[in-house]
Amino acid sequence: MVGSANALPGSRAQFERLLAGGAPLDAAIEVCKVAEADPDDTSVGLGGIPNEDGVVQLDAACMDGRTHNSGAVAAIENILHPIEVARLVMERTDHCQIFGVGAYRFAREHGHPHTELLTDSTRALWLRWKENLSDQDDRLPPPPKSETPKSAPSKGEPPKTGFVPTRFERHGTIHCSVLALDGEVACATSTSGLGFKIPGRVGDSAIVGAGLYCDAEAGSAGSTGRGEASILACASAMIVEQLRGGSSPKDAGLEILRRIAKQTERQARWQPALLGPDGRPAFDIQFYIVGLDGRFAGVTLHGRGQGRFAVAEPAAGPRLEPLEPFFT
Ligand code: ASP
Fold it and tell me: Which atom of ligand 1 is closest in space to residue 197's alpha carbon?
């Protein structure tokens, strides 16, 4: 099992079941559900950072290498476990993706309860963001009394009241890719997406080939971080394609990061803020990869922020390992 750092608690819970012959898709989905239900993980499900209207909109997708089928929901609201709905799309429809109100209705038809996903702390974070958007409107931030943290909240850490994340600090997601002992692969990704996004914005997590992809003949991969970069690189599918060609997971991941860095230089011609003062992408993005031979990797563009990934293998159980950075 390989995934984002916030996949560790779920991996711990699922690893023994997987070793006992559990299906890789079940494991990947159950891992995501742990983060979806955690109100302190501001990047996924309950307690996820809302969109610019203060509404939590979720993206999720799963893919099963055994059937080469996938399901996804995008911009779904008020459903605690979008990853389960993505699985229903895969198993109970002839479609690959359902969006927005249609996804919500579909989930309700299948018995998912209506759930408020905004928590008191994410509501406070959203208000603070609105109050700091402009000095030309009529909103005022409260008088400064709480301490402003120096860095973005990490996964699993509740947002600080006085903290307003910058544009590139509003990312976070859970991904889990699984290779079972019988050689079958599956993967799942779930997210509340980019914090304060434009309502209806769909990121890579709901897009098979971008935020996740697996192929029974090659391996599995998924991403966290700036979804637009992952979409524009068709990243996860490209990584799996390189595995098929014989690349190691680490080389395949670093090659996609190289492409993303080059592609961003082009995009910066019309969107200069995408590059930092050092000429490198101003955002971060990570990939989690496992090949059919059991080799795995976690790679990141910068190695700042989210510095570790979750891995569990028979030789050594669930643990966090450092991500391999492209820019050292
Ligand atoms: N990749 C997700 C998205 O762009 C969010 C993230 O991981 O930061 O929606």
Answer: 9
> In this structure, what CATH number is given to the domain that contains residue 65?
3.60.20.30
The Cα–Cα gap between 72 and 45 comes to: 15
Whether residue 144 is contained in a domain is answered as: no
18 Ramachandran zone, left/alpha/beta (phi>0; psi -120 to 50): alpha
Would you say residue 154 lies in a domain? no
Report the separation in Å between the CA atom of 261 and the middle of ligand 1, taken as the mean of its atom positions: 17
Domain range for 231 is 2-116+166-323
Tell which atom from ligand 1 comes closest to the C-alpha of 230. Answer: 1
Q: What are the tens digits of pLDDT across the range 212-246?
A: 999 999 999 999 999 999 999 999 999 999 999 99
Selected residue with higher pLDDT from 237 and 134:
237
Average pLDDT over residues 48-70: 97
Catalytic: 173? yes
* Mean pLDDT, all residues of the chain: 92
State the total domains in the chain.
Answer: 1
Residue 75, token pair as written in the block: 């911009």
Quickly tell me which residue has 């995008």 as its tokens: 74
Q: What are the phi and psi torsion angles at 19 (to 5°)? A: -65, -30
Residue 200 lies in a domain: yes
Q: Is 199 helix (H, G, I), strand (E, B) or coil?
A: coil
- Give 100-123 pLDDT, tens digit per residue: 999 999 999 999 999 999 999 999
Average pLDDT of 123-131? 93
